Amino acid sequence: VGNYSNGSWTIGDRTQLQLQSWLKTPVKMPDDSLLALGGRSTVIRYQSGRWQRVEVSID
Fold it and tell me: Is residue 14 within 8 Å of residue 1, measured between CB atoms?
């Protein structure tokens, strides 16, 4: 997981993000964040130079 901007990469920590599957193509959101979806209810958000895992629950 990485983002290339202004000649350098910002890399997300796969262990910290608990990634267990490959992510699909990121989608740019109206607030300029990026969302990437994966298997096993995985959603990763990139905003303001930070990667974070988004909690997903199904009711």
Answer: yes
Give the SS3 label for residue 15: coil
At residue 18, the 3 state secondary structure works out as coil
9-37 pLDDT, tens digit each: 776 666 666 665 667 788 899 999 989 88
In a domain, 59, yes or no: no
pTM of the predicted structure, to 2 decimals: 0.60
N residues, the chain: 59
Query: Hey, is 21 helix, strand or coil?
Result: coil
- The count of domains in the chain is 1
